[in-house]
C-alpha cells in the first residue's frame, strides 16, 4: 500500500473538492477514465487493485499527488484484505464520502447444466461477494459521518439471463438485490445506494472479443462515467436503490454485457 503525499494540490472545479472517493478494481479500463474524471473535479482518490504496481503504471500522472492513495495487493473477495484496505483509506484521509464498487469480472461459455462449480463460485465471489464485503466495511463509517454515496456497477444481464452466461447473470442480479436492500436499510441516514447497468461497453477487451460486431452502437466509457459522477453527486440525493440503464444506442445483442 502506498499513501502518496507531495506539495500543494492543484485547484480543480469544486464538484467533489471536499470528497474522498474510493474506487475498487481501479486498474480496469473503465475505471481509468472515471478516476481521472473525479480527480479533475477535485476529489481525493483512494484506488484499490489486486496487483502490485498496476495503479502507479496506469495513473502515472496522479502518482505524485497528495490527494491520491494507491491501495494494492488487495483481494476484495477476502474479508481481512477488505478491512485492511478500508483502514488504510481512513488512516490516510479520515473519511470516505463515495464508494464506487467496480471490481468484477466476466466469464462465460457453458450452459447452466454444464457450469463448472469453480466458475459459479468465482463469478459470485468476484462480482457479488466483493460488494457485500465492501459494504460491511464502509457503511458503518458512513453511518458515523451521517452521509455517503455508494454506486455499484451492475450489468444489463443482471436483469435477464442470457445463454451460456448463467453464473455471470446470477452474480450481477445479486449485485442489484444487494443494492436495493442496502438502499432500503439506509434510507433516511444520508447515505444513497444506487447501481448502474452498462450495456456492452466500447473497451479494448470487447473490441478484441467481438471484432465483427457493430461497435459504433456500444456504450462509450465517458457516458458511463457521466452517470457514475451524477449518482455520486449531491444532485442524486433523492435517488435510492435505482438501477440506471446505460445502454447506449440500439444495443448489439451478445453475451458480453459489461466486460471491464
How would you sum up this structure, described in words?
The protein is of the alpha/beta class. The protein has a single domain (2-246), classed as 3-Layer(aba) Sandwich (Rossmann fold), CATH 3.40.50.720. It is built from seven helices and eight strands, in the order ββαβαβαβαβαβααβ. It has helices at residues 29-40, 54-58, 79-93, 117-145, 166-186, 204-209, 221-231, and strands at 2-4, 20-23, 44-48, 68-71, 98-101, 148-153, 191-198, 243-246. It has an eight-stranded mixed β-sheet, sandwiched between helices. Helix 1 (29-40) links the parallel strand 2 (20-23) and strand 3. Mean pLDDT is 87; it is low at 4-14 and 250-260.
CATH class: Alpha Beta
Counted by DSSP, the helix tally is 7
Structural class: alpha/beta
Strand order of the largest sheet: 1-4-3-2-5-6-7-8
What is the CATH topology assignment?
Rossmann fold
Helix content: 25-40%
* Distance between the ends: 23 Å
The radius of gyration computed from the alpha-carbon positions, rounded to a whole number of angstroms, is 18 Å
Portion in strands: 5-15%
Shape: globular
Integer count of domains: 1
* Helix-strand string: EEHEHEHEHEHEHHE
Tell me the total number of β-strands.
Answer: 8
How much is the average pLDDT?
87
**CATH architectural grouping:** 3-Layer(aba) Sandwich
Report the major sheet.
8 strands, mixed
- Given as residue ranges, the uncertain stretches (5+ residues, pLDDT < 50) are 4-14, 250-260
Q: Assign the CATH superfamily.
A: NAD(P)-binding Rossmann-like Domain
Amino acid at each position: 500500500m502506498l499513501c502518496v503525499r507531495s506539495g500543494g494540490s492543484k485547484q480543480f472545479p469544486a464538484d467533489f473538492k471536499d470528497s474522498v472517493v474510493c474506487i475498487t478494481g481501479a486498474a480496469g479500463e473503465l475505471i481509468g477514465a472515471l478516476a481521472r474524471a473525479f480527480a479533475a473535479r477535485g476529489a481525493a482518490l483512494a484506488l484499490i487493485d489486486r496487483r502490485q504496481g498496476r495503479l502507479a503504471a496506469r495513473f502515472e500522472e496522479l502518482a505524485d499527488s497528495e490527494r491520491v492513495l494507491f491501495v494494492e495487493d488487495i483481494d476484495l473477495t477476502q474479508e481481512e484484505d477488505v478491512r485492511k484496505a478500508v483502514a488504510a483509506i481512513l488512516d490516510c484521509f479520515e473519511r470516505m464520502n463515495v464508494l464506487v464498487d467496480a471490481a468484477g469480472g466476466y466469464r462465460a461459455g457453458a450452459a447452466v447444466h454444464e457450469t463448472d462449480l469453480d466458475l459459479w463460485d468465482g463469478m459470485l465471489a468476484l462480482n457479488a461477494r466483493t460488494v457485500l464485503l465492501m459494504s460491511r466495511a464502509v457503511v458503518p463509517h458512513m453511518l458515523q459521518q451521517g452521509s455517503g454515496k455508494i454506486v455499484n456497477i451492475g450489468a444489463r444481464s443482471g436483469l435477464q439471463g442470457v445463454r451460456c452466461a448463467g453464473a455471470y447473470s446470477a452474480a450481477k442480479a445479486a449485485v442489484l438485490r444487494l443494492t436495493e436492500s442496502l438502499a432500503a436499510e439506509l434510507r433516511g441516514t444520508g447515505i444513497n445506494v444506487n447501481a448502474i447497468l452498462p450495456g456492452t461497453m466500447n473497451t479494448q477487451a470487447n473490441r478484441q472479443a467481438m471484432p465483427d460486431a457493430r461497435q459504433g452502437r456500444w456504450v462509450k466509457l465517458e457516458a458511463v462515467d457521466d452517470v457514475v459522477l451524477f449518482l455520486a453527486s449531491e444532485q442524486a440525493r433523492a435517488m435510492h436503490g435505482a438501477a440506471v440503464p446505460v445502454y447506449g444506442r440500439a444495443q448489439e445483442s451478445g453475451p458480453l454485457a459489461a466486460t471491464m
